[in-house]
Amino acid sequence: MNDDLQDVAFGSRPGFAMPPGRTGDGGAGIDSWMRAVASGARGHYAAASAELDRACGSTANPAVRSLASSTRASHLRQAGRHAAARRHDGEALRWVADPASDAVSRAAALDALIGLAADSLGTAQFDLADRLLARCEDSLARIDDDPWIWTGRLRLRHLWVRTESALYRGDARRAHEQMLDGRDLIDACPSVRHRIKTDLIAAATSAATGDSVVAIRAASGCADAARTHGQLPLEWAATSLLVGIGAASDGSGALVASEARLRTELNARGGGFNPR
Questions:
Q1: 248 to each of 200, 251, 263, how far by Cα in Å?
Q2: Scanning 140, 177, 227, 252, which has its CA 20 to 30 A from the CA of 157?
Q3: Handedness of CA 1, 102, 61, 72 (dihedral sign)
């Protein structure tokens, strides 16, 4: 893999210019996928979709095609379109349905299953979500020696969706405890973007437990960090959480206007976010 590109998509430089990907070799598909991930993280959904097309066009590798489908699903979920995302996550799982020994294929299968669990939460199929998460546990326990992108990243995504499952069920205490139990995973995370999202989910658990002061402080920090690193979807998500937990109750309307502006910008970039 291209280390510089990986550092932009999954590391410490999410807002940096993306280096060119490779052409004409076996890594071109993975490079295009990482470029799509980085573009989507900045809210450039149309550009990300085009890059995913290039990823699929540059390789017949089923794992890369699976990762591309999971990424399309992720972009739809960010816009709240969980039912539409399910089709892409199902396609992602189909590409890697046969057992595989390589790290990328194992990770792609886990990405698809975790994505399907998140889709199920968004369509109020909570028991199905928990069954899908349970299917991942043995595989997650066995992946130890591969790079973080194929190991820790999946464990962290699994933690996110488990925490969200507890929140969807109204069990704020369990959600909060799960985030505390995942501290080692969070501390080992090399990705700025994943750390921001983890902090945002932690802010949501604080809000759900009634600790609005901590929640507002954490969500504000997430919005600032996302803005600093050019991660527009996370900035919008943090701003939306702040509006939802009453941080805009001073009557100024600035926070509500900011949420609307960010959503409009994301839609201009191909996001498909619904108006409020």
A1: 17, 7, 17
A2: 227
A3: negative
pLDDT of residue 204: 97
Walking along the chain (276 residues) 10 residues at a time, the average pLDDT comes out as 90 88 69 96 97 92 96 97 98 88 92 98 97 96 88 97 97 95 93 97 96 96 98 98 86 87 97 83
Q: Quote the pTM value.
A: 0.95
Please tell me what DSSP assigns to residue 268: H
Q: How many CB atoms lie within 10 A of CB 244?
A: 14
CB neighbourhood size of 94 (10 A): 13
Task: Say how far apart CA 38 and CA 127 lie, in whole Å.
Answer: 32
- Whether the Cβ atoms of residue 271 and residue 44 lie closer than 8 Å to each other: no
**Tokens matching residue 85:** 């995302």
How far apart (Å, rounded) are the C-alpha atoms in residues 10 and 14? 7
What pLDDT does residue 176 have? 94
Alpha helices in the chain (DSSP H): 3-10, 28-41, 45-57, 62-78, 82-95, 103-122, 126-142, 152-168, 172-181, 183-187, 192-208, 212-228, 232-244, 254-268
Q: Which residue is listed with tokens 């996302």?
A: 226
What residues contact 102, with CB distance under 8 A and at least 6 apart?
A: 63
170's CB contacts (< 8 A; 6+ apart) are none
Question: How many CB atoms within 10 Å of residue 62?
Answer: 18
